[in-house]
Amino acid sequence: MAEKKDKKSTKINEDGSALSVCEATQKMIDRARELKVSTVYDRAAAMKPCLIGAEGSCCKNCSMGPCRVPPSKKEDEPQKVGLCGATAETIAARNFARMVAAGAAAHSDHGRGVAEVFLAAAKGEVPGYGIKDVQKLLQVGLDLGLDVEKMETKELAIKIGEKCLAEFGQQEGELLFAKKAPLKRQELWRKHNLMPRGIDREIVEIMHRTHMGVDQDYKNLTAQAGRAALGDGWGGSMIATELQDIMFGTPVPVTGSINLGVLNEDTVNIIVHGHEPLLSEMIVVACQDPEMVKLARSKGASGITLAGMCCTANEILMRHGIPIAGNFLQQELAIITGVLDAMVVDVQCEMQSMSNIAKCFHTQLITTSPKAKIEGARHIQFEEHNPIETAKQIVRAAIGAYPNRKSNSFIPSEKNDMVVGFSHETINYLLGGTFRSSYRPLNDNIIGGRIRGIAGVVGCNNARTVHDGQHLALIKELIKNDVIVLTTGCSAMACGKAGLLAPEAAKEYCGSGLAEICETVGIPPVLHMGSCVDNSRILIAATAVVKEGGLGDDISDLPAAGAAPEWMSEKAISIGHYFVASGVYTLFGTTFPTTGSKKFTEYLFNNLEEEWGGMWDFVDNPLDMAKKMIAHIDKKRKALGIDKARDRVLMDMQMRRELDAV
User: Fold this and answer.
1) CB contact at 8 A, 244 and 278
2) pTM, entire model
3) Angle, nearest 10°, between helix axes 237-248 and 88-122?
4) Last residue of some domain: 350, 369, 404?
5) How confident is the model at residue 9 (pLDDT cuts 50, 70, 90)?
6) Distance between alpha carbon 472 and the CA centroid of its chain, in Å?
């Protein structure tokens, strides 16, 4: 019998502090230590980070090193350089650019895989996949410059697939989706030679430039990192989001539940974990197959529970309401419940430690991608030409593991309800209605001051800080000050566990202006927009606000800011850099990988805004981060001339006619 404990967890850090603000997580860390199972929290305490490496001041790009060039401790002390003479600026900029390259490659390779399956599905070569959103198919066709009126659905889908795949290998010209950005932003990219030519080309060029003895100008390296990052945000990630919406359906608001309490003692429990929804979509189908349910019952289970983890979770939650078991730092803990029959992983953010932990229990750890195998795990390769059979094979493996459960199971009771699935199209509809979908109500409320501004809060969890704590402290402070928040990834899951993704949160946590808007429209103050690649939705939403008018001509004019308070992944650096290159003031917490270089960091944190309209910043304390974001929003409001309070006006019919005529 699985234990259910509702009492507060004991304090678990040596100094008496908690490691997570999530009660279920705290309980499971306690449980892991009772069972003497090591987790990421224990390893973080035992292994201190290399401060020189964390600040970006260590170069290992040739075998003469590694060369460590920490900042000088005294004003008159000469700055150290590497054996080749590379300065701290060059070393930090190279390391930063390589992080962008790795992050952009991860997201864009996701997009490539989606594009390949999309094209095969359009040609009728793979069963199980099709076109679920014809309207978005037509819109994407227009975005790519196709004459959609003269094409049947199949022909149009094939052309879209071909054009999207061509974006990866393109050597010259401009990415097609980059033309969705505001015209002023496109002009800035061309002026500063930031417009990406092709997704893969910009990533490869970073690797060449950062080889020993090539690019040794930190500003030049920053610009190339910008091209690669833009190729991610306005290229690979946007391709993944747009094509997934066409194949699986554009998200609309749906209710779901989150936290480890979604697992059940009497069902076969399967978690899909990673970032690509191609297989997980099929596992959703397989788990609902009467044949699979019957097989589970024959083993003594009452049915099958499917849950998600990390961004795969966000994908299937938005489209099917499948519950989320947790975010990044909860993956080991899900196995330690003792009731997880299969942990099914694809790519990105999967800890190798799961293999050893699974051996302590009965859990089947199953890898599915040829790009991401784990020693000790079972490999069932995803076959895109027969995806449903691959999915059923995985479900059968989980069902087969169910009778092998041991007696030491423990499921924390915590789980929260939430409303998710706020795509750009959904926001447009909710604000404007069926007959006049529009961002005008959002713009008007920002101009009128009831909404102070917009914040994108995204990114990972980091074991070097209190799990979920930075996300929640920042977001609560923002919405208290009437800043509406758009969120993705593990940050979105932190919000779900804390109740911030429920409409009722507006009354409890928001300032009066934002609360009024949320209660009128019936939305939460924090809008869940999807997975990591779906940060491209935030770019499109920001562009829509610009195009609606009244708030400037570019994304950099908006009273908006972005943050990743608990980032840990190279993908986060790529995301942050494409937001900066798109004109957004972007703050990271926990640590920042350039602080060992004074001049380079000064360039990113201050001087870059003069060139790009956006810039980086680093703030470790989430409340200080909120203050900086709000100050930036207020600065932009003042520049737009909307910083003064305005009286509310009851519009008569003549005023409405004048508005329609604009």
Assistant:
1) no
2) 0.93
3) 20
4) 404
5) very low
6) 16
> Considering 404, 433, 455, which residue would you say is the last residue of a domain?
404
Please, which pLDDT band fits residue 384 given cuts at 50, 70 and 90?
Answer: confident
User: What mean pLDDT is predicted for residues 58-66?
Assistant: 94
Q: What angle do CA 275, 476, 350 make, to 5 degrees?
A: 20
* Residue 383, pLDDT score: 87
Name the nearest CA neighbour of 90 among 211, 226, 227.
Answer: 211
- Both 159 and 115 in a single domain? yes
**Model pLDDT, residue 198:** 97
What interhelical angle do 218-231 and 199-209 show, nearest 10? 150
In terms of phi and psi (left: phi > 0; alpha: psi -120 to 50; beta: otherwise), the region of 468 is: left
What is the structure's pLDDT at 11?
42
Q: 604-639: per-residue pLDDT in tens?
A: 999 999 999 999 999 999 999 999 999 999 999 999
Check whether residue 343 and residue 394 sit in a common domain. Answer: yes
User: What whole-number distance in Å separates Cα of residue 402 and Cα of residue 413?
Assistant: 21
Nearest CA-CA partner of 622 in 510, 506, 470, 476: 470
Residue 26 in domain = no
The Cα 241–Cα 200 span in angstroms is 18
List pLDDT tens digits, range 471-522: 999 999 999 999 999 999 999 999 999 999 999 999 999 999 999 999 999 9
| Same domain assignment for residues 204 and 282 | no
Same domain, 576 and 627: yes
DSSP 603: I
**E strand map for 142-261:** 254-258
Phi, psi for 113 (deg, rounded to 5): -60, -40
- Give percent of the chain with pLDDT exceeding 90: 87
Q: Which pLDDT does position 6 carry in this prediction?
A: 41
Sheet holding 526-528, edge to edge: 526-528, 483-487, 453-457, 560-564, 585-588, 616-618
CATH number for the domain spanning 587: value is 3.40.50.2030
- Structural domain tally of the chain? 3
d(CA 372, CA 106): 12
Q: Are 543 and 583 in contact (CB under 8 A)?
A: no
CB 292 within 8 A of CB 304: yes
Summarised one tens digit per residue, pLDDT across range 509-566 is 999 999 999 999 999 999 999 999 999 999 999 999 999 999 999 999 999 999 999 9
657: three-class secondary structure by DSSP: helix
Q: Please identify which residue in the block is written with the tokens 């609360």.
A: 515
Residue whose tokens read 């996701």: 110
By the 8 A CB rule, do 626 and 620 touch? no
Q: How many CB atoms lie within 10 A of CB 529?
A: 30
Domain ranges, residue 231: 88-248
User: Contact 364/302 with Cβ under 8 angstroms?
Assistant: no
Cα atoms in the Cβ-side hemisphere of radius 13 Å centred on 454: 25
Distance from C-alpha of 439 to C-alpha of 548, rounded to nearest angstrom: 6
Whether a cis peptide bond, with omega within 30° of 0, leads into 66 is: yes
Q: Cα–Cα distance between 473 and 443 in angstroms, integer?
A: 26
pLDDT at position 75 is 72
